[in-house]
Write a structure and sequence with these properties.
The complex is a heterodimer of chains A (249) and B (335).
Chain A lengths: L5 E4 L8 E4 L4 E5 L6 H16 L5 E6 L3 E6 L13 H15 L6 E12 L7 H8 L3 H10 L2 E6 L6 E4 L14 E4 L3 E5 L2 E4 L4 E3 L2 E5 L20 E6 L2 H6 L5
Parallel strand pairs in A: 6-14
Antiparallel strand pairs in A: 1-6, 2-3, 3-5, 4-5, 6-13, 7-8, 7-14, 9-12, 10-11, 10-13
Chain B lengths: L2 E5 L5 E3 L19 H10 L8 E5 L4 E4 L3 E14 L2 E2 L5 E4 L4 E17 L33 E2 L6 H14 L4 E3 L14 E8 L8 H9 L1 E4 L7 E5 L14 E2 L4 E3 L7 E3 L6 E2 L3 E4 L5 H5 L6 E6 L2 H25 L4
Parallel strand pairs in B: 11-19
Antiparallel strand pairs in B: 1-4, 1-9, 2-3, 3-8, 4-8, 5-6, 5-7, 5-8, 7-10, 11-18, 12-13, 12-19, 13-16, 14-17, 15-16, 15-18
Classes of the chains: A alpha+beta (249), B alpha+beta (335).
Organism (chain B): Brevibacillus antibioticus
Keywords (chain B): ATP-binding, Hydrolase, Nucleotide-binding, Transferase
Protein name (chain B): Biotin-dependent carboxyltransferase family protein
Chain lengths: 249, 335
Amino acid sequence: MWQCRYSKMEGKTLPRYEFSPLGDSGVMVKLGEVIDQQTHEKVILFSEYLQEHPFPGMIESVPGFTTVTVYYDPITLFDPLDHMLPYDRAVAILEQMSQQISSTHSKEYRLVEIPVCYGGSFGPDLEVVANQNGLSIEEVISIHSTTEYLVYMIGFAPGFPYLGGMDERLATPRRSSPRLSIPMGSVGIGGLQTGIYSIESPGGWQIIGRTPLRLFQAGESSPSLLCAGDKVRFRPISEREYDNGEKVY
Amino acid sequence: MSIEVITPGLCTTVQDTGRFGFQQVGVSVSGGMDKQAVQIANMLVGNQQTDAVLELTMKGPSLLFHKDMLIAICGGDFKVTINNRSVLPNRAVWIRSGSILKFGLAKEGCRAYLAVAGGWDVPLVMGSRSTNLRGGFGGLAGRMLAAGDQLVQRSPGSFSQFLANQLAKRAGAAPFYQANWFIPSSTLVKNGEAVVRVIQGEQFADFSEKSRQSFFEQTYQVSPQSDRMGYRLTGPALELTQSMELISAAVTMGTIQVPPNGQPIILMADRQTIGGYPKIGYVPTIDLPIVAQLRPGEKIHFQEISLRDAQKELIERDSWMKAIKLGIEVTVGWR
C-alpha cells in the first residue's frame, strides 16, 4: 500500500542555539525564526541526535517547527555538591551537544505514500474546494496528489502530521461551522494547510477524501505512521481499493 | 477478580505518573492531575510511585471488594465509607473481601486517588497505564470506569504484604482496619481561594503593563469549562501590547497560555503536545497539585516565583518524599 524510500539529508553546520526555560522541567531550544526547510532540517538533526544520545535526566524531546523542546528531571540534574541550577546544567549539556552535531551528520528521510479515496461520502467538501478555486474536481485531486509534502511535526492529536508544501491553488477557508465529528483518516484542507485527521475528532477543515491507513495505533514502539522529517505523497485510489485497503500499517 | 464497580462516579479513570517518550508523535502525557497525591497514595501501600491508581473526580464510585486488600486514599477530601462506616484518608487501610467502599462527593478539593497494594493491573500501553480519554487507549479500555467493570490488582511486593498482614492482624473480625499513623495532606484549598505561584513565560514581557499588573493583583476564577486538558480561567482580560503570530511549539503541564479573548488557560495532564498561544507564565511543578484540586468557581491568586526557587522547592519536596517513605518503613517496623 505504501512505500518507503530512503534518501540523504545533508547536515548543515548549526549556528547559535537559543535556549529558554519551558516551566521548571523543560528547555526550549530555538533553531530558527521562520518555518522553512532549512530550519526544519536543523530541528530534525538536533532531534535525531538527542534520540541517539539522551543525557541522564533527560525525559524526552519534542520537535516543533523552529524548536526542539527537551524535558528533563530537575532532581536527577541536581548535584548537591555544586548546587548548580538544574536548568543551567541542562542548557550546558545541550550547548555542548550542539557542538557535536557537525556538518558530516546527516539524516535519512522516508517518503511515505498515503492512499486516499477522494470525494464521495469520504470527501464531502471536494466540490467546495474545486468551486472556490475555479478548478475541476480532477484538477483538485491531481494537484493535491502530485505534491510532495513535508512532515514538519506531529502534534495536536496522536499521530496528527503538520504538513508543509500544499499548492496555493488549493487554499480554501475553513468551514464556517466546524463538524462535531470527523472520521479517522479524513484528509482535509484548512486555509493553506492540508492534513489528515489521525483520530476521530471535531474539526473545521474541508474534507476532500479519506485514507484507509491508520495514522496512529497505540502500541509499544512506533505508534505513529509518520514522524517529523518524513515526506508524504498522496495516491488517489478507488472506493473498492479503499474497502480492500490495509487498515493498519 | 479483585473489585467490581457498582457505581462509577463522575469521572473515574486509571492513572499513573504519566506516559513519557511519545509527545513527539502527539501523545499527551496524561497521568494523575495531582501527582503528589498519586505518589503518596502509592507510598502508603508500599508501591512504586509510578504504579497505577484510580483517579476520582468530584463524585467517587462505589466498589465491591472480592478480595482482602490493602488500600490508601489521598488527595481531595471525599466522604468515604466502608460498609457505611467512615474511613479516613492519607493512611493505609486493610479491607476485607465482601466489603463495599463507597465514595460520596468531594468535601474539599476536586480529585482523590485510590491506590491498592501492587497497583491496578491494566496493560502497559507505551510505558504507562494512564488512560488517554481522547485517544481511547491506556487504563481500562481507554475510557472511564462504568458499572459492572472489574479491576484486578497486580501482585504486591514484600513490604506491601508485610504491611497488609500487620493491619489484617489488628483487624481481627472487623471488615476493615485503618492504620493509626497518617501523612497530612497540604494542597487543599480553604475558603475557595488558592495562591498559585508562576514563573514568567516566554511572552510575559509582551503583555501590557496593566495586564501584567492585573495578572498578579487581581483574582481569577476557575470556569466550569475546565477539565483534565486545561483550566479555563475568567478574570481581567490579558492584552498583548501588539498582536503576535506565534509559531506553534511544545507546551507543558502548567503552561498558562492566553488566547485572543485574553482569558488565561492553565494546561493540565491531558494537554495537547503542541500549542501556539502566547505563554504568560508557567505554574511550577511544586504548585500543580494545588491547581489540580481546584474546582469550578474557586479563585486563584497568582504570585511570582523565580525559576531558581521553583526548582529549589522541587528538590526539597523530593527529599521530603524520601523522608516520608523512610518514616513509614520505620513506623511499621520494616526497618
